[in-house]
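User: Okay, second chain of the day. Same drill as before: sequence in, structure tokens out.
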Amino acid sequence: MGATLNVQAQTADEIINNYLTALGGKEKLNTIKTLYMEGVTVMQNGNEINAKVYRDQDKLLRRDIDFGMGSSVTIVTDKEGWFSNPRNGGAFQAIPADRLKTQQTDLDIRGGLVDYAAKGSTVELLGKEKVGDVDAYKIKLTPKTGNEVIYYFDPKTWYVIRETRKGGMPGGGGAGRPGQGQPQGDGTVNIDYSNYQKTADGYLFPMTVSFGNGGSMNYEKIEVNKPIDEKLYKPKN
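Assistant: Same drill. Structure tokens below.
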């Protein structure tokens, strides 16, 4: 039994290493300090939702959403968190402690798969599963927080093409890559990643992120290691 688990762990590590290499290598990923992302979602009725996402490694995840007829903001830091939306008049409220703890896992820009063991996480290979027409490898990551994430890898490119987790996300996914989603009926959220492209400085990101609810975000701008205004780390009513 122990030998079987060891073989699975080694195989999982090989897949993860292939994935990290496909993204430019662990060393390059570890040079990511900040991210700025702009994306657009076109709804079935033709309305557009515009998103701006600011991320600072281990310090900030901020998502500003413009619905056209209203807006919402979510701010998650290593110590506190706030949210606002049209239903509460746009006033900021503190994120409850239990939700904040879950959302703080996404402060890791580089993603949970980078140096996962050093972070206290474990991985398990779950075999293969079809994602569309891709026979994808399926790996479960269990962080020390216990919030499991399942990643699906395309064996031809080694990119993550799907991510599944419970409870929804504040704005980051794909092993720390762009993404957001809403929980399905069983509390899980599925996010599919496609259209991987390199930035001018050689960082690779999925530019299209599709959610289980039928929506998709198309990222039009991604900037790496640009300064973030200190005012964005705090709510402003």
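The chain has one domain: 2-233.

User: Thanks, on to the next one.
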